[in-house]
C-alpha cells in the first residue's frame, strides 16, 4: 500500500516538475520593455501563453506601473485602487489560470 502511494507521489511530482520546466518567461515589450507608444497587440500576436508562464514587466520605477486585471476589467478600462499597483520596475506575474488577463 505504501509503495502505491510512493509511486503516485512520484508521478505527481514528475508532472509538476515537467510543467514548471516547460514554463516560458516573456519579457513584455521585448527589448523596449513596458512603455508607452508600443504596439502590444502586435507583440502578443505570435505568442501562445500557458498556465505557469511568466510575464516580466521591465520599466523605470516611478514612470510606469502594472495592475493585475481580468479580461473584463481590461476591456472596460477599470483601474484597480492605486494601492494595488505593482511599481518596482521589474514585475514578474506567473499565469495561474487560463483566460484573458
From TrEMBL:
InterPro entries: Cupredoxin (IPR008972), Phytocyanin-like (IPR039391), Phytocyanin_dom (IPR003245). The lineage of its organism: Eukaryota, Viridiplantae, Streptophyta, Embryophyta, Tracheophyta. Residues 1-23 form the signal peptide. Keywords: Signal. PANTHER family: BLUE COPPER PROTEIN, PHYTOCYANIN DOMAIN-CONTAINING PROTEIN. This is Phytocyanin domain-containing protein. Residues 24-101 form the Phytocyanin domain. It comes from the Eukaryota.
Amino acid at each position: 500500500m505504501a509503495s502505491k502511494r510512493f509511486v503516485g507521489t512520484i508521478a505527481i511530482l514528475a508532472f509538476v516538475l515537467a510543467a514548471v520546466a516547460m514554463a516560458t518567461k516573456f519579457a513584455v515589450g521585448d527589448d523596449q520593455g513596458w512603455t508607452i507608444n508600443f504596439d502590444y497587440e502586435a507583440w502578443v500576436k505570435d505568442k501562445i501563453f500557458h498556465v505557469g508562464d511568466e510575464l516580466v514587466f521591465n520599466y523605470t520605477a516611478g514612470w510606469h506601473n502594472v495592475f493585475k486585471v481580468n479580461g473584463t476589467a481590461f476591456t472596460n478600462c477599470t483601474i484597480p485602487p492605486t494601492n494595488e499597483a505593482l511599481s518596482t520596475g521589474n514585475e514578474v506575474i506567473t499565469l495561474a489560470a487560463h483566460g484573458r488577463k
